[in-house]
Amino acid sequence: MLTKSTCLKFYKRKDIQEAIVNHAQHKEIGMRYNEAFGKRPDTLTYPRDVLELALREATSFHASEELWENPLNLSSSLSKKELDQLRTGWDLVLDIDCKIVDYSRIAAAIIIDFLKYCGVKDISVKFSGNKGFHIGVPFEAFPKKVGEMETKDLFPDAAKKIAYYIKENIKKELGKQILEIEKGDIARIKEKVNLSQEEVTRYELDEDGDKIAKLNVDKFLEIDTILISPRHLYRMPYSLHEKSGLVSLPLDPSRVLEFEKNIAQPDKVPAPSFIFLDRKVQGESARRLLLQALDFEVKTTPEKVSSAPKNYDDLVISSPISPEFFPPCIQQILAGVEDGKKRSIFILGNFLGKIGWNKAQIEELLYKWNTEKNKEPLREVYIKGQLAHLVPGERLPPNCDNDAYYPSMGIACNAEHCQKFKNPVNYTLSKWRRHLYYKAEDEEKESRKKSKSVKIKEIPNPNKNQPSEEKSI
Predict the structure, then answer these.
(1) pLDDT, mean of residues 119-135
(2) Do 38 and 125 belong to one domain?
């Protein structure tokens, strides 16, 4: 439990007061008094407010993920529509929660690297104050609209999908790196996290079909998606933590692996040098992250993974399906695009992988398409980076009704024969299956003709080798 003297000593610093108030702009603020929260909604306007609240025994300050036109107009009785009208934006705040700070630190570093890989430039990180880390991307780094939808109205679903997308893409690397620092000793990990061997172990099949034990990080390390919810609050930067007595300290994202908890002691915290959720952004650098996360949710939700009829399950694709069977939307992309070349790479890679193309064939087509069909080609290094993570056949391309892709790229197919398909792959599989059906039918007809011809030739002459009537008298 934090004492009043500890809080006053720390919160009386003017640089700390200013950092807290600057972060509070356009956010709903909640004050904690050791075990209890104060009334909501509330705001912080002046640096002096921080000290005055500490004098009233406030121990920590918490802020909403959402940005509001006027936070004081909020109430628990508001409908979703009314909240959407008051909301002006939302920040992505990922909460890495693990009882072992060494594991949390590794997770934070991997997430930062993955965000950079996705093109995000405006990344901030802070120690949570206890055992975890918060990673933030400010709302200003996201596009204002996705298709016809205002991005501000996509909370909390879009933020949850991003968190899930990141979690699924880093879990193998996370398990690998945690095992490395523990020298491959899963038993040691289970003791640290106080779980059974079965709970921290998952199995993958190798090329020979044998089970290989892997570390299952889901049971002890959480990248929180549950707490991404309307009016949820997170601990503000430079706020004290009631249990640890440490400061929720913003850090240099490139040096998060060097963090040690002792530097977050209140009497050791230097003047603020890093801003958590800095509003001065480098354009809409989180656009691709948002679009791919929205599409990833479509691909991984069981009922939406594939809208192909069940009788497609027995369709064996032994060789790449040729372009004559591609839907109009894919044909349009292959003819070259002005806008959406990066999204086209994502669409084409996953589409071709699902219809039998291997990685080398996909790579050859993409490089040729990029240089021969697009007036302003993408840099080859970008295509190379995307191909490095492509596993042909693993994912479907975006569904046809995904506004973030085809319609917003100026590609919209209204042909009657496309309307019954939800995904470009289904169009191609249907057309290919029909082709195979007619091909088999033609081959069967041809076979019957040949068979009939052979039988006619082989019918014996009933009079052959029979004695003549004269001889039989």
Answers:
(1) 96
(2) yes
